[in-house]
Amino acid sequence: MTRPNAHRRLLPSRHQRPRLTPNVVAGLAERLTPRDAEILDAVWEHRVLTTDQLTAIFFPSIHRARHRLLALHEMRALDRFRPWAPTGSRPWHWILGTAGAHHLAAQRGITPAELRYRPDSASAIALSSRLNHQVGVNEFFAQLHTTARHRADGSAVAEWWPERRCATLWGDLARPDAFGRWTEPSPTGQPDTIDFFLEHDTGTETLARVLAKLDGYAALAEATGITTPVLFWLPSAAREANLRKLLTSSDVPTATAVHTPVTAPDGPAGPVWLPAGSTGPRRPLIALRDAWGTINPHSEPV
Question: What domain of life does the UniProt record list for this protein's source (predicted)?
Answer without folding.
Answer: Bacteria
